[in-house]
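Write out the 3D structure for:
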Amino acid sequence: MNTVEYADRLAEHPFGRLAILVVGIAVFGAAMVSYPPFRTVVWWGLPTMFVLFGVKELYLHGDSTLSLVAGSLFVLGGISRALYQLVPMDEFAGTVANLVPLFGVFAMMYAQHYRENE
């Protein structure tokens, strides 16, 4: 039995999937603990992904108003989240900085629902 067949056999079993998940989380946690610059990548990954998702939404579906709003909220949310991580803010500004991407998520879900039912 080669490695690919063994991996397929392991992935077909529910406990095998659970074992893969546990091992993956353990490897990810060990990488974050043992390699400190990796923590910075994860820390800045969230605002970067918000901006990239917003740009993708604007580029692919920017012709509709809902997608334009969702993409803009995602870009603005990524920037506000990055500023929240860089600059100390009071509670209200921090809450707003964290809520803007949340509104972007809801707007993108609504835009996707509207596109599917159009």
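The mean pLDDT is 87.
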